[in-house]
Amino acid sequence: MEWLIYSMLCFFFLLLLLFIGVPVAFSLSFVSLVAMYLLWGFDGLMTVASTAYSTNANFLLIAIPLFIFMGECVAISGVGADAFKVIDAWFGRLPGGLAITAVGCCTIFGAVTGFAPATTSALGPAIIPELLKRKYDKALGLGAIAGGSGLAVIIPPSIPMVIYGFLAEVSIGRLFYGGLFPGLLVALIFGFYIMGRVMMNPSLAPRDAQAAPPFLEKIKKSLYILPFFGLIFLVLGTIWGGVAAPSEAAAMGAVGSIVLLVYYKRLTWGVFKQILLATVRVNCMVMYILIGGILFTQILVELGFAKNLTEFVISLDVSKWVIFVIMQVLVLIGGCFLDPASLLFISIPIFLPIIKTLGFDLYWFGVLTVINIGIAPITPPVGVVLYVLKGVSPPEISLQDIMLGSAPYWLLYLIGMLPVVFFPELVTWLPSLIIQ
Predict the structure, then answer these.
(1) Which pLDDT score is estimated for 209?
(2) Torsion sign, CA atoms 401, 384, 144, 109
(3) Domain contains 325
């Protein structure tokens, strides 16, 4: 049982560092460095250099900074306000139409940013003033923005899916295919939830007395943001058409996002510098966490934790579905304290041997886990979307308003997982149809 004692000590010190406020990347790295020294002496520290180099040189992971760059370009381009006007023109007259528009905008932006905070910062300033102007219930409107921003984690191209594909050694393109229908399904659930609440209590979302814009005006507004949809097609279309790998498509998307900035007349040297700095900050955080997570996983492998834990779990006289539920509950709880990237780096290397042994489909499990992780950005105390949304809101909106509005979406994400659990074809059908 030495493997269990030493492994639990590693987890104890990791949790202790996280509890006292040490960033995830530093916590993982520190515990790993100390364990490596105790296990292998100074020679073991050479693993750090080789791991850092091999991780950063991995071709698959080039997609992460490129998708981050693309999301930052789109966020700063101002297209968020334009997309909001277009979707509001088409759906704004529905019950709770402005909140539904917020979800729709987040869904579309998720197909470009892949990063929930970027979606929030791009759309919040455009939508929140309209919420206040039309006297919408604060919790209803803010919850739609916060909950919808989490869709960026699910709607392809998704940075967490890139990370999962790297860790699980599965095709990222197939993951993008598999995540499309579940992501759209979750967005539909959000829309029906908003309509249902407003139909039961119309005072939450007063109807706009202004007449709906003429059909031709809607078409004209829609044409104005066609370049934005062209950027989405440039990325997903090339992946799904077999023209480019995800990393190559990300590179084309990065170039396309610069063209988008030029089209919307937002490109200046100062703006470009701001985008580069934001990209470097986020990418450094992700890559540092990734390196720390890989080092920590190497320690667990050396101690025999993954192998022995898998054997122990398989020996339990319980249904494999009980084990599946326990893993998803652990992910849900972890999302309250960790960002999506950190949660994946810590959990997936532990879960993966168990999932393979139990015979679950890796793509199906990955998409379900990513949907679950979509809750993490909106759950306190670490839900970064909550604080970003507060940062772009006027003073009269409190953090309590935002948390109150986002709370129902925790359950809605879980509800969105159920059809995927009972109908795995929602994940597996499209990849099997297109990728032979």
Answers:
(1) 52
(2) positive
(3) yes
